[in-house]
Amino acid sequence: MREDAGYSGGENFDLRQMLLKGRSMRLDQKAAFFGRFMSDLQEAGENLCMRCITSPTDREVVVVDPATGKPKKMLMFGSNSYLGLANHPTVKARVEEAIRTYAIGIGGPPLLNGYTSIHYELEQRLADLKGTEDALVFSSGYGANVGLVSGLMNHNDVVIYDAYSHASFCDGIKMSGVQAYRFPHNDLARLASLLGQHCSADHDTYVGSEGSTPWTGCRPAGQIVALCEAYGAILIVDDAHGTGVMGAKGSGTAEHFGVESRVPLTMGTFSKAFSVTGASWPPSADHQLLRFFARSYMFSASLPPMVLAAVLGGLDVLASEPERPSGCGRTSPGRPPGCARWELRSDRTRRSSL
Ligand SMILES: Cc1ncc(COP(=O)(O)O)c(C=O)c1O
Predict the structure, then answer these.
(1) CA neighbor of 161 nearest in space, from 237, 97, 100
(2) Backbone dihedral angles phi then psi of residue 333, each to the nearest 5 degrees
């Protein structure tokens, strides 16, 4: 199955394709078409307006009621703040300290002027957490995936990836022009068959899989690692949702399954458990080329120090309150505060998208 084979589940739908179905329209026609689509939805009682939150994000939030225009308290089930770090006093104190030291932002990309001692400190902490020599901090998980895939893979390489892979991984594939084949979600027999067909000494073969998500649970990480080792393929794990949550240290899904040292490339976002934005790829030292080959790293402004301070504060909390990460996830019992979404979604196979 090639990358252009259409929607196959997971967070990789293309609303433009779904609505326009390949029809070419001028901008004003598209705008009118989409306007009709939205008003039809509204008439059918579906409200897609973005709700405006006026309080810190926690289990309970204050939201402006679109009907009355007045604020009201609501329970939050949509946030990825799995560990309740979004409003944690330790995290807030670190952010305040960072603002005093570094002020607000930097105004440039890391290779130019956007690299401070707090960027260095966070890279070291993440590398230690993941047991690697280095870590690169990207401005978003989306950018990290696009940058890694398009930065590492060449036209003659092959990537074999789970059909539920995130849109950012798939967009990286499109940018790189790598030969791409996808296997049905968690179908290891199909993965093995594709590895058998496409692995060769002439090129690199990569395998893309997500670590774990609240709506599909954990991937069979040990078996995927063993298959990659058997065929000499390079495994990439997008652990956006597992980072901070899975494993005794909170290092992620690979730690949970005891295969941390056997996964060469893992991406973890700061937008889920750490509740801010950004992401890291902790590669081995010989992958320094990513700082120069990943265009989303090279040509995008660095995260402000206060955002990195929030991640460092979150890591401090994980270290001082080890009960937070280790219980979260559907294979373990006691979930810490802030994990409502994992409990609610653990039995679902797909998340409703809109
Ligand atoms: C599996 C996965 N990868 C990557 C991303 C992108 O991360 P971010 O929102 O931090 O850009 C997401 C976000 O939803 C995700 O779920």
Answers:
(1) 237
(2) -80, -115
Pocket test for ligand 1, best of 168, 173, 303 (most atoms within 8 A of CB): 168
Q: What residue owns the CA closest to ligand 1's atom 10?
A: 141
Q: Which atom of ligand 1 is nearest to the CA of 140?
A: 11
Q: Which atom of ligand 1 is nearest to the CA of 165?
A: 1
The secondary element (H helix, E strand) that includes residue 170 is helix 167-176
What's this model's pTM, rounded to 2 decimal places?
0.88
Report the chain's mean pLDDT, rounded to a whole number: 87
Rg (CA), the chain: 21
Q: Which regions in the chain score pLDDT beneath 50?
A: 1, 3-4, 327-354
Residues 173-186 have pLDDT tens digits of 999 999 999 999 99
Sign of CA dihedral 235, 178, 185, 20: positive
Q: Which domains does the chain have, with CATH numbers?
A: 29-75 (no CATH), 85-330 (3.40.640.10)
8 A C-beta contact, residue 237 and residue 209: yes
What lines the ligand 1 site, CB under 6 Å? 11, 140-142, 145, 166, 168, 210, 238, 240, 269, 271, 279
